[in-house]
Specification:
Layout: H1 8-12, E1 18-25, H2 27-44, H3 47-53, E2 65-72, E3 75-82, H4 88-94, H5 98-111, E4 118-122, H6 132-144, E5 148-152, E6 157-160, E7 163-166, E8 169-171, E9 173-176, H7 189-196, E10 201-202, H8 205-212, H9 216-220, H10 223-228, H11 233-242, E11 246-248, H12 254-259, E12 264-268, E13 278-279, H13 285-293, E14 296-300, E15 306-311, E16 314-327, E17 330-339, E18 352-358
Parallel strand pairs: 1-18, 4-5, 4-9, 9-10
Antiparallel strand pairs: 2-3, 2-16, 6-7, 7-8, 11-14, 12-13, 12-14, 15-16, 16-17, 17-18
């Protein structure tokens, strides 16, 4: 039996969190995704990358790195990298993978240089978050392994003599689920200062700058730059084939992007959760002007594959994003998220996290 008892009432309020469907992915595609991830990690490890992104030399990886793919006719295509990729616990629990849950606990222990006794799972108003059931699941999982855990807003933490405290408990590690990736908001000043003083916060601004800033995809698809950095030809070939070409959107190239918009997907540099993203073929002139005035990248359109799902007795086709949860370059678990519309939304009947099996 899984060591989790998620509140049924909370799950009932989220009827499209889990899909009853099973997504079949070929071993070749699983291996190809892993190869793309390994190629990216090898580039990110270069000193030239460190100099380019200005992330500093702290913590090479954080917990729950999410590499999201679309499976296309030409093979898996990386859509984006996330540093606070939610759903890893929920998806493993759905799949009955106790081994993966145990690996997650080991991951958090590995992040902490000393003994891990207490964790704070932190998000803004956590009870209002859609994935709040996952926070409770983590609290149970950690407790089952002898680790005290609290789910809290960052305002509940106090920094004292270099240590973070929640009430009378010293926090050894913060599992950060905020979408303020650089801790820029005034409400997160305590976390930023604690991180600056060396508190263990994962993921943190360094991780986001190194991995998830969407401008990083521009460099990862710039073969001339990679060649200049000395990246091996075989690695460059994997990246060029596995990541849709990504470009910075600038007003100077407005006409060019407008003409090519139907083959592009536009994303805000600092976006998350698909907010502010647009398929080029759906763009109006008004929205395009907003994109030009913002800070956006344009990615070559890589349409997702679809999978048959029975909803209310009728067979329908749902799109799939495939997420690889990665720690220190190794794939821990793979899940799919099924949906309709432009992006993953957890509002589609029959959609949500779906189990992945090998074809």
């Amino acid at each position: 039996m899984m060591p989790l008892d998620l509140p049924e009432a909370l799950l009932a309020e989220r009827p499209h969190l889990f899909s009853a469907a099973t997504v079949s992915i070929s071993q070749a595609d699983l291996e190809r995704m892993a190869a793309i991830i390994a190629a990216i990690e090898s580039v990110i490890a270069l000193p030239q990358w460190e100099a380019k992104v200005g992330a500093g030399g702290m913590a090479p990886s954080g917990v729950f790195m999410g590499y999201d793919f679309h499976l296309t006719e030409t093979g898996p295509q990386l859509i984006e990298i996330n540093t606070n990729a939610g759903g890893g616990l929920l998806a493993a629990w759905q799949a009955g993978r106790e081994d993966v849950l145990a690996a997650y606990v080991a991951m958090f222990r590995a992040e902490c240089p000393g003994e891990l006794k207490a964790i704070a799972i932190v998000d803004a108003a956590p009870e209002a978050q859609y994935l709040y059931p996952e926070f409770l699941g983590f609290r149970q999982l950690f407790a089952a392994h002898g680790i005290a855990a609290v789910v809290c807003d960052p305002a509940e933490l106090v920094l004292c003599h270099g240590n973070l405290w929640h009430e009378e408990t010293k926090v050894d590690l913060v599992y950060n689920r905020l979408t303020d990736f650089a801790f820029e908001e005034p409400a997160h000043a305590v976390l930023r200062e604690a991180w600056r003083q060396g508190a263990v916060i994962t993921p943190n601004p360094t991780h986001h700058a190194r991995y998830a800033d969407k401008r990083n995809l521009i460099a990862l698809t710039d073969e001339a730059l990679l060649t200049e950095w000395g990246v091996a030809a075989a690695t460059r070939a994997v990246l060029m084939a596995g990541i849709p070409r990504t470009e910075a959107v600038t007003p100077a190239r407005a006409d060019d992007f407008w003409q090519r918009r139907r083959q592009l997907f536009f994303k805000p540099v600092a976006g998350y959760g698909s907010k502010g993203t647009y398929r080029g073929d759906k763009l109006t002139k008004r929205v395009f002007e907003e994109i030009l005035a913002g800070d956006y990248v344009a990615q070559a359109l890589a349409l997702p594959s679809t999978f048959p799902v029975t909803v209310a007795g009728e067979l329908t086709q749902l799109k799939a994003d495939v997420r690889n949860y990665v720690y220190r370059g190794a794939v821990q678990f793979v899940t799919a998220r099924l949906y309709q519309g432009q992006t993953t939304n957890f509002r589609t009947p029959g959609g949500g996290f779906a189990k992945v099996v090998t074809a």
